[in-house]
Amino acid sequence: MSQEKIAVLMGGRSLEREVSLKSGQRVCDALTSLGYKVLALDVTAELVETLRSESPDCCYIALHGKYGEDGTIQELLEFLGIAYTGPGVVSSYLSWDKSVAKYIMAEHGIPTPAWITLTADAFKEMGAATALDMVPTEVGGFPLVVKPSQQGSALGLSKVEAPEQLPEALLGALSFGEAAVVEKWIDGCEISVSVLDSADGPEVLPPVEIEAKSGLFDFSAMYTAGETDYFVPARLEPSVTEDVLDLARRVHELLDCRDVSRADMVVAEGDAPYVLECNTSPGMTETSLLPMAAEAAGMSFQDVVERLVRAALSRRK
Ligand SMILES: Nc1ncnc2c1ncn2[C@@H]1O[C@H](COP(=O)(O)OP(=O)(O)O)[C@@H](O)[C@H]1O
Ligand SMILES: [Mg+2]
Predict the structure, then answer these.
(1) What digits encode the pLDDT tens for the residues 17-76?
(2) Measured in whole angstroms, how far is the alpha carbon of residue 66 from the centre of its chain?
């Protein structure tokens, strides 16, 4: 039995704290049953002290959102010389900021919905009336989506059907951070594709199709059992399946993701896929998409966790 000590980082101060505690608990259970020594760590001000005194063999990052997914914790662990699961500092940051990731994807020919990034300052400089007038035309009209550039779990996100709803949506998104992404709404079938690195390169898992009963895959649809129907593998034509798998692999490589990533997409009518974003610390809860995809590929939750931990342990200094 392996006796390596794994610190599972979870909770923290982000708005996705509760989700992370769920992911973290499942990961702890899996690691315990695999025979590892497990240290469950809620991320608080004492984190550095605890890591120094415990010196784990590696950290499993089960954090979601700001500080956990944006490169902050990754940078701290680099500094402490502790190996960790998932993408490195730069990759985490680039993927976390939706606007930055969209620029990189668009530059490399990855289809992503038309968008404009508006910072609170740009909004003021332009004058609210001009901005509100110009932005919808730039992204191709209504409906559109407004979301914080740096956030997750659909927090601060709204679908905007008409001009009079835009100011409130923008204020909402900007209350979560400096920049908002205003993006064309793509009508179609929602797909999420997870990627796990293997010795032979990135392994792309079966696509998951998401059908939120309310019509919007928001926080409650993501985490409440029964509010969303999932189909794995997604009910796509074989050629479209190939397209989405290829896109997920390209995004994983383009953003230099290590170990794991999950690309969220919409396949528009006419079978054209668009990538919305790339997640570098995908959810590991009961209703999360990566574990669902892994299961369809014949991998248990424990298999996924072990694979991520083995990869991190191989980078031990
Ligand atoms: N441009 C879009 N067109 C259609 N649906 C969208 C669009 N942007 C976001 N959504 C919906 O909102 C959900 C959350 O958006 P996403 O960009 O994945 O951000 P996050 O998951 O980080 O909050 C998506 O899973 C999708 O259901
Ligand atoms: Mg998403």
Answers:
(1) 999 999 999 999 999 999 999 999 999 999 999 999 999 999 999 999 999 999 999 999
(2) 11
Residue from 102, 145, 261 whose mutation best tests the ligand 1 pocket (most atoms within 8 A of CB):
145
Q: What is the mean pLDDT of residues 224-238?
A: 96
CA 54 to chain centre: 29
Is 15 within 8 Å of 151 (Cβ atoms)? yes
**Could you identify the atom of ligand 1 that is nearest to the CA of residue 264?**
18
- Between CA 75 and CA 113 the distance in angstroms is 31
Name the residues annotated as catalytic. Answer: 16, 153, 223, 262, 264, 277, 279, 283
Residue 2: per-residue pLDDT? 54
Look at the pTM and tell me if it is higher than 0.85. yes
Look at residue 148 and give its three-state secondary structure: strand
Which domains are present in the chain? Answer: 5-86 (3.40.50.20), 94-111+186-298 (3.30.470.20), 115-184 (3.30.1490.20)
